[in-house]
Specification:
The chain has 357 residues and is of the alpha/beta class. The chain has helices spanning 12-33, 35-44, 65-68, 99-117, 141-150, 168-178, 189-202, 221-225, 230-241, 341-349, 352-356; strands at 61-62, 81-84, 94-97, 122-126, 138-140, 153-158, 183-188, 212-217, 245-250, 260-262, 268-269, 274-279, 293-299, 309-321, 331-338.
Length: 357
């Protein structure tokens, strides 16, 4: 069973065979259980033959379709939880999970993070406010991320108040209790930067968590506009909190669970249960190593909705496979920001025929 394997344990040939097999099964499953998806496949991939021999032969959906359509492969009565994307452009994606899919996503998320944090549950400082996780049946991307990572922690402490100011008393109590040992800090990148580190700097205050690991995720667009790149971010983290272990991860609410974590060499790694393809924007053909293109994400986890093969609106570059200096197997890549609006629109326009059929 693929889900029983370690996250970074299988070589290229073995993984390719397992993913082709599993993702072909998922394709057939969603064709049979999601009518809209079946119409899209019929319109865009009329000659699709399963099982596929190459991962690049799999059909893929524009991630924008989840903002436009309620795509699910389960009956309404089986919807256990609905996740919503951040909706920065005004419309949120809706991702509908049943019990089984939600359980598998949680299991795999923990399994991946244990490779980076160890198996012990660590005292956890969450750079957000507690209200974001109150409605457990309808989660935002932030709420889903916090709930998912909270399984890795204990003694959970929310560092912010509802008005996004720092909860100084809670923060000081947490640091006094746990500063001498390993700690997990988690938050979304811009939240961590704007509402935590910038507030610490503005108040001329520092905290001391030298054995902590910061895990963060989210778009870099706002930070890059402030001339803050990954290295500058890590430098500020170290200067204000004494933290030297920082792991960014790439993922999205449309494919939650099988995340891509950054190693100490700055590379994002594909786990055993997921993969990445880089496509050229002018014809959607597969790009070569080192060639910038649009990121396609593959995941074996989504069974309640057809989100297993998604064309994102992010640019990226594939660096290598099975040979990262960190010794983790699998493809590794970098994300280079969002596509220009024209290319992003073109990405979703590819599917208009399928939508209208």
């Amino acid at each position: 069973m693929l889900f029983d394997l370690d996250p970074y344990s299988i070589d290229k040939q073995t993984k390719h065979h397992l993913l082709c097999d599993e993702l072909s099964r998922l394709t057939l499953h969603h064709q049979q259980h999601c009518p809209e998806f079946g119409k899209l496949i019929q319109a865009q991939w009329p000659s699709l033959s399963l099982p596929v021999k190459q991962l690049s032969d799999l059909p893929y959906l524009s991630v924008r379709l989840f903002k436009q359509l309620a795509l699910k492969s389960i009956p309404d009565k089986q919807v256990f939880k609905t996740l919503y994307s951040s909706g920065t452009m005004g419309t949120s994606s809706r991702i509908m999970l049943d019990n089984q899919t939600a359980a598998v996503q949680s299991k795999i998320l923990v399994k991946i993070m244990q490779q980076w944090l160890g198996k012990a549950r660590l005292p956890m400082l969450i750079i957000d406010h507690p209200s974001v996780v109150k409605d457990r049946s309808n989660f935002s991307a932030r709420g889903a991320g916090i709930q998912g990572l909270s399984f890795m922690g204990r003694n959970h402490c929310y560092a912010l108040n509802d008005d996004m100011s720092i909860n100084w008393s809670a923060l000081e109590e947490f640091c006094n209790k746990f500063a001498d040992g390993p700690v997990l800090i988690f938050g979304f990148t811009f939240m961590v930067w704007q509402h935590f580190f910038q507030q610490l700097i503005a108040h001329k205050r520092k905290i001391n968590l030298p054995k902590a690991t910061l895990v963060h995720s989210g778009g870099w667009k706002k930070l890059i506009s402030q001339a803050i790149d990954n290295n500058a971010f890590k430098k500020i983290v170290n200067q204000t909190c004494g933290v030297s272990k920082v792991h960014n991860f790439y993922g999205m609410v449309e494919q939650i669970g099988a995340i891509f974590v950054e190693c100490e060499y700055g590379h994002l790694h594909c786990p055993s249960y997921a993969d990445v393809i880089i496509r050229r924007t002018h014809d959607w053909s597969v790009a070569d190593y080192g060639e910038v293109g649009v990121i396609q994400l593959l995941s074996t986890l989504p069974k309640s909705y057809p989100g297993y093969s998604l064309l994102t609106e992010d640019k990226g570059v594939l660096i290598g496979e099975d040979d990262c200096p960190c010794h983790k197997k699998g493809k590794y890549f970098n994300v280079l920001g969002r596509l220009p609006q024209a290319e992003a629109r073109g990405c979703s326009d590819t599917f208009e025929v399928g939508k209208s059929s």
